[in-house]
Amino acid sequence: MDPTLKLGDVIGVATDYGTIRRGDIVVFKTNPNSPIAESGLTDLVKRVIGLPGETIESTPTQQIEVDGQILSEPYLPTGTALGPPIPQQVIPAGDYFVLGDNRTDSSDSRFFGPVAAVQVVGVVTAIVSPPVDARALGR
Question: Which residue range forms the structural domain that includes residue 47?
């Protein structure tokens, strides 16, 4: 999640979070059958990019489109590369499409598919150490 989160950052997570919104950073359980879980990771932290029922894809110019509209991502530094492309897909009901902010080096929905709402543990509400402007969290 670099540059928003760095290794060793301490985060606050709300488990009673209400509605998940685009731009939220979520903590979720990995699928126990995924290669990520086999590596010993049980929880991941990623940013919600796509919501249930939306169509998502990346353009040849490395931009993300949601329902045909270019996604604005003010939380990323200007010029952040997308990394691997996003093939056009409809996000199933009850699922979220998540990406890491370090797009060129992130295991995310481009690799393991959408995340089911039941996998979500909570929404990141604060970076406790070191403190960070809340706008970077999308809330």
Answer: 10-128
Specify if 136 maps to a domain.
no
The number of domains in the chain is 1
Tell me the H-state helices in 1-139: 35-38, 109-112
CA angle in degrees (0–180, nearest 5) for 47-49-54: 150
Spatial CB neighbours of 51, under 8 Å, sequence gap ≥ 6? 20, 21, 22, 91, 96, 97
pTM of the entire structure? 0.88
Smallest Cα–Cα separation from 56: which of 102, 114, 137, 14?
114
Q: Is 19 helix (H, G, I), strand (E, B) or coil?
A: coil
Asked whether 52 and 95 are in contact (CB, 8 A), the reply is yes
Residue 97, Ramachandran bin (φ over 0: left; ψ between -120 and 50: alpha; else beta): beta
66: CATH? 2.10.109.10
Q: pLDDT at position 137, please?
A: 65
Dump pLDDT digits (tens) for 25-54.
Answer: 999 998 777 777 777 778 999 999 999 999
The whole-angstrom separation of Cα 106 and Cα 124 is 18
